[in-house]
Amino acid sequence: MPDDERRLMKNVACSSGERGIDLEGNAMTITPSECRVALLCGGSSGEREISLKSGEGARAALEEAGFAVEVLDPAEHDALMRLVSESYDVAFLCLHGRGGEDGAIQGFLETIGLPYTGSGIQASALAIDKAKTKKVYEDAGIPTPAALYLASSDECDLLDIEAHVGEKAVVKPATEGSSLGVSIVSGREQLQAAIGTAFTFDTVVVVEAFVEGVEVTVSVIGNESPRALPVIQMIPRNEFYDFESKYAAGGSEHLCPAPLSDELTELLQARACAAHRALGCRGVSRTDFIIDAQDEAWALETNTIPGMTATSLLPDAARAAGMSFPEVCAELVKLALA
Length: 338
Known about the structure:
Layout: H1 3-11, E1 36-40, H2 48-64, E2 68-72, H3 79-85, E3 90-93, H4 104-112, H5 121-128, H6 130-140, E4 147-151, H7 158-165, E5 168-173, E6 183-186, H8 188-199, E7 204-209, E8 214-221, E9 227-228, E10 232-236, H9 243-247, E11 252-255, H10 262-279, E12 284-291, E13 297-303, H11 313-320, H12 325-337
Parallel strand pairs: 1-2, 1-3
Antiparallel strand pairs: 4-7, 5-6, 5-7, 8-9, 8-10, 8-12, 10-11, 12-13
């Protein structure tokens, strides 16, 4: 392992054994029953249905932890007005995709002065954009597959794209989540069709070199001193970890902790924490990786509002770290109020 990776792992707090509610070294006590939580889920993005399921999972966990929770759907006319007119202590965000993970709702909440879980405006806007995220990875020294970025107004030169990323590629909309519009293609005919499909979801498309390997993910919790939860390996029923694999019952198998060497596990945790810091994330994030045959870990994307459904990865990782999901949700509230 290179010396810079060893220094990174030494300097980043990434122990899956770290727990508790002592935030950033300062004791902080809140009484859940006296903390009124506005849980935001639903919205109007392509991930609305998943957001509603995440909201239900988080609501149950927060209520089990003792919080007073009210569920609000920003797609409903009076939801945002209630945030302004009523007295809440914190907003718990389960809004996936545009309007939830892109900095928009975060800007609204900052304008009205209501603390909220997760990352701020800039980190949210960066992380939802896969093209910008990859540039942040590169600047931070986090390996990520080679890619080209296409705007809808660009002329599409298939020969140039193939020369840059290879014959087999992954095509994805820049700002969609839950693997919506993502295709793995081989050859120019498939590439052209996949680019056309991706443009129906977004105005910018990422064409990324395909890396054969094991799909894993690492959740990170914390503000200035982030720590990584155990690594999860995903074994999808389909070709890759697509929408069905993520959310359908039996769509994938999760191995947690992932059956990896201690050295590779520590490397993944360090890189996930490094991504969290480089993007400026707060509260929670989850970074997805591909591990190739040489045990190189390639960062693919970072999610600032990970799913909280019955099949989601964050609750699985928390359980493997010895934390219940209600404990995780309570800690996210504390981090929001810190």
